[in-house]
Amino acid sequence: MKYLHLIWSALARSRMRTVLTLLSVVTAFLLFGMLDSVRVAFNNSGQSLTGADRLVVASKLSITQSLPYRLLPQIEAVPGVEDVAFGNWFGGVYRDMQNFFPNFAVSDDYFRMYPEFAIAPEQLEAFRADRTGAVVGGALAEKFDWTIGDTIPLQATIFPRDGSNDWQFTLRGIFHVEDEAMKQQENQLMFHWEYFNEANDYISDEIGWMMVRVADPSQADRVGRAIDAISANSDHETKTQTEAAWTQSFMKQFADVGLIVTAIMGAVFFTLLLLTGNTMAQAVRERIPELAVLKTIGFTDRTVLMLVLAESVLLIGLGGLLGMALAQALVAWMAGYSQGLLPGKAIPTETWLVALALVVGLGLVVGLLPALRAKRLKIVDALAGR
Asked: What pTM, to 2 d.p., does this model score?
């Protein structure tokens, strides 16, 4: 620590270069903190069911595999299960592919499972009374300027009907979500599973997933194991998860989040390595006479080596800490809008530990060659400008 003032002086020698390099490091660690938080969340969260009052039962093999309808009464009979609803992914498109939004075939009691979906009682009754009725979220209705009674045509991408991909639904209800953090839930359409089951040409008496409400959230793990035991060793084994874990599984069908994040961060840190390495090399070249003077007044080769390495680690460390602090603030802000995909209000400990390792590793790698050059420096040659 007694040489800290020398390290600060070296960093301040070219303030503009130091500031620009520091901003590059901050940006790299800001991206790392945010993206790695998502990776850790996708890999780890939702593994425990304890404390969850709403569970999702889906195929253990793949989220795209259906479950037999006959499982429904067996799951309803599991001790601790308070209510069960179910749904099936439809995947229809409104007019063209640019107008894609989530749409599902659901059981008539689906809205009982989601009290946070506010819908007028008369609209809910009208939906239940109309075989081809549909309910949409307020944001979706506003986007397409839909009103009650409108006909909504969807083009099936998976499930044809009577040899055609044309499906038509009558809008009978519009629901709203009061919680601003959950407003994204308003971008979906739901219609009757019974109509879907009778009309589609692809599957019969099969459902995509079941929503289960447990009477006691502290017993959710036990209930989940009991549900999965029903179909154990069958051709339709189930996996019971929290809603957050199931949503993540659903998104993983479209992309390997971990691989994408790793590839992006690999490119970012490789670029950062080249940038900061060039900065440190140039900084040492400019200070060759100063380093020679330090050796002249008694600084050993090892001390000069450590000074350059400390300068490199300090530069990366300052940028890394600032970047991670900004990422912490952004993750905390975004967590409320992620519907449980981001890990609470803080960057995971795992991400902080990886960031610390990167700070030390990058600092040492970036400063190693300039530090070795400073260590091997001959005083006479340096002062003579050779």
From this structure: 0.64
